[in-house]
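Notes from hallway chat w/ T.B., transcribed later so I don't forget. T.B. wanted the structure written out for a chain they're using in a teaching module, and asked if we could keep both sequence and structure tokens in one place. Agreed to drop them here.
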Amino acid sequence: MGITVRNLQKRFGAFTALDGISLQFERGELAALIGPSGCGKTTLLRVIAGLEAADAGDIVLNGRNVAALDARERQVGFVFQHYALFRHMTVFENIAFGLRVKSRRERPSATAIRAKVHELLELIQLPQLGGRYPVELSGGQRQRVALARALAVEPSVLLLDEPFGALDAKVRKELRDWLRRLHDELAITTIFVTHDQDEALDVADRIVVLNHGRIEQEGSAEEVYEHPATPFVYAFLGGANRVPGSIEPHGFVANGDTLPFVAPGALAGASPAQGAALAYIRPHDLRLYPGVAQAQRGDGAQADVRRVTVRGASVRVELALAWGPLEAELTRNDWRALALAEGDRVTVVPRTARVFGAQSSR
């Protein structure tokens, strides 16, 4: 059960938005669709909702093929980024709207509608604001009302298109934590689109990474972050240093160097055969050793500290090497212990790195 999409195709003129997408979303799962602008995230969501028609493929919701049905018949709740609330209606009437426009046969009684709206106002933690208009609410409150309106019709599937994208960082963090708790309480199959990788990693049970209308990788947050299948996924999910070089018997050697930058034991995953390659390294996976020469260790590279930026609990260190720049991320305690300052000379050593063949990294 849940949601199944099979070989979805969607073109807009010469542009291919969805290129044979097949996915299975389990009942009660909270999944995130991420990827760059134009990769097909929102198009996939709108096709599932019935707001766009696919050129080919099937959409199965809870065991029922709905590809030929319009949006009204799919029992899908949709929440837009910019709320789409009716400005002339109170919060109460906005939430009640989907129930009031049901056919006479399916429409609940006025008493039942009132009870349902009050229940949802409690659920979204706005029980005293039913009489207000959208203009009198904050952005975070409006988005909660939009979510309550989608839930009022008791959808089998909830689709969220960048629901927190228009909010400031603090409110966005509060609402995504709230959404996770709400989802766990309701156990409704939920798919949301986001440009915020941290949001996806924090909230979702499963992440689907899209690129050019195709699936690059899908899996749990840990799987896609710790074991990226492609260079695109590695670079897209979190910061990544990209170092050109080659695979040699004694490790990964950066271009222009002779000693290995990454020792064989620090290479994660399956490495390509010897030859030209690109190493991808997370900033927090770089160790810095002041006063330790590269030759003493047998790996790493010499670097000059160009800039140190304190960011709350973490510290970003910009490094200049003979073959290019790198960015390291330290905890505040590690930075203090190293007593690093701009102009210092250090040896930088990757704890771990993922190496892809030069052809696959293009």
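Follow-up for T.B.: The chain has a mean pLDDT of 89. Might be a good example for the class.
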